[in-house]
Every structure is written in C-alpha cells, then in structure tokens.
Known about the structure:
single chain, Rossmann fold, 2 domains, 7-stranded mixed beta sheet, 4-stranded antiparallel beta sheet, 6 helices, 11 strands, binds S-adenosylmethionine
Amino acid sequence: MSDIAPDGSPVLLYARLPSLGEAELIHEAVPPGCEILELGAGAGRITHALLALGHRVVAVDNSSAMLALIRGAGTIVADLETVDVGRRFPVVVLASNFINDRDPGTRRIYLATCARHVLPNGQVLLQGFPRDWTPSTEWSDLGDVRLRLRSFEQDGDRISGEMEYRVDGEQLFHIFESKLLSDDELDADLRAVGLRRQRTLDERGAWTEAVPQARS
Ligand SMILES: C[S@@+](CC[C@H](N)C(=O)[O-])C[C@H]1O[C@@H](n2cnc3c(N)ncnc32)[C@H](O)[C@@H]1O
C-alpha cells in the first residue's frame, strides 16, 4: 500500500508526476538565484526543477514521506496553518490550489503564512484553478502517470470530484472539494492578510503574484 499524505495526496503519485513548467514560470518572475520558500512542496516536483534553475529552496509540507523524497533543498515538516520558519524570504510559493479552499478563513490562514514569511520587498506566487478551468473526464497522460477526473459535481463556484490515477501498476484516487475564486474574492483574501495582487503570471490566470501592501 502506498503512503498517503494527511491531505489524501498519494506520495507515489507526486513522486512520479513530472513538473509541468511551473518552475520555469516562477523562474521568469523572480530574481536569478534567489531563495524560495515553497509551501506544500510535496515530493519536490517543482522544488527539484527550481533547484536546477539555480534557486535555493526551503520546502515545507506536513507529510514527512513526501519531503523524504526531496534532495538538495532544506525541508521542514510542518502544517502550513502554523508553520513559523523564523525568517522571511524574497519569494514565497504556494502552488496546488490552496487558495481555492472553500472556507475563506482557511484560505486566509494559508495566505497569512505567505505574508508572514515574505520580505517587505518580496513576492508571493500563488497557483489556483485557471480562469478557464473546465472539467474533462477523458484519460490523459503526464509522464508515467495516466489520470482522469473520475467523477465531478459543480454547484455554482463550488466544485468537487475524484481524480483517478494509474502509476506503476497502482490505481490511486484523490477526492477534492474546492471553490472557483473570482478576482474580487482573491483580492479580498489578499487584503485581509496585508497582501495585494501585483499581476497575473500566465495566460490562463492560474498564477498570481502578490506583494506586501506597503511595497511600492
Ligand atoms: C496536491 S500535493 C502538491 C505537491 C506539490 N506542490 C506539487 O505540485 O507537486 C499537496 C501537498 O500539500 C501538502 N499539504 C496539504 N495540506 C497541508 C497542510 N495543511 N500543511 C502542510 N502541507 C500540506 C500535502 O502533503 C501534499 O504534499
């Protein structure tokens, strides 16, 4: 039986999924060779690509099984809700749709973690569902992983479903419940923790750069 992270993420899956250009997008948006705090880093899918691009990374996750697969970065086993790394970073990355949590209080707790770890002139890079996200139940392939959305429900901006994965002969599942955020809702969440939207980093609107409100 594969290890499963506390949030239900299968470790084997995140060990096998390839990086999909996330690190290159981050690299384009930040100064060369900077130090990045990556929250919810998993098995290092994005971490390893950032290291290869010349950045230093401190990776935080509450799954020690995930972090055990990371090589070349600092790792901290901790909950994103409460982690205190004890210093600030020029860049904080929160990928993987944490900003799409259905509960605004929880979203703001994650964003507050970003805010208290970013330098006053630093950048917070956030990945959420793209604006044009549409469900597809077709099978597709990412590296060695076959995947599909096995079931799906939508009620307005509230979405839920079950992903099915085939990897190394194993069948893995992951249930998600999320909320598609409007720009106004994201702006309100950012404002609540002392951040503000600076720009969108990709055409599909999945990645947002936020900065401390006081930054010029
Ligand atoms: C969907 S995986 C994505 C991992 C990585 N960002 C990637 O894109 O490959 C989400 C990761 O966040 C971690 N995670 C989820 N909730 C967390 C929390 N509250 N505190 C710390 N880590 C958490 C999980 O253990 C998992 O490794």
